[in-house]
Design brief:
Order of helices and strands: EEEHHHE
Distance between the termini: 17 Å
CATH superfamily: YegP-like
Structural class: alpha+beta
Largest sheet: 4 strands, antiparallel
Radius of gyration: 16 Å
Strand content: 15-25%
Number of helices: 3
CATH class: Alpha Beta
CATH topology: Double Stranded RNA Binding Domain
Strand order of the largest sheet: 1-2-3-4
Length: about 110
């Protein structure tokens, strides 16, 4: 059983991809890319890393709630959340400007 990666453009003319199962369910949707080659490279990275990827449960990490995000701003909230996640995983902090893969369906 093999799913497929579908490359498409969104309403902002960004290239994205989605991973669908063999029965057509959408499993994941990528962030936007300026060039199709970037989306293809991201698909390659997902294919190489997903097969042996570890499942990391981040549900116990503290979460900023909307009232707190108004005080510090949305971008700070995202950077803070990412920094906490990277620290929990023992990784160095990365730039806030990264493309992400958003899971659509649970495990």
């Amino acid at each position: 059983m093999a799913g497929k990666f579908e490359i498409f453009t969104d309403r902002d003319s960004q290239f994205r991809f989605r991973l669908t199962s063999d029965d057509g369910n959408v499993l994941a949707v990528s962030g936007g890319y300026d060039q199709k080659a970037q989306a293809v490279a991201a698909i390659t990275a997902v294919r190489e890393n997903a097969a042996m990827g570890h499942i990391v449960d981040l549900t116990d990490l503290p979460t900023l709630y909307p009232a707190e995000s108004e005080k510090i701003g949305r971008s700070s909230q995202l950077v803070t959340g990412r920094a906490r996640m990277e620290a929990a995983l023992g990784r160095p902090a990365r730039s806030a400007r990264t493309n992400t893969l958003r899971l659509v369906q649970g495990i």
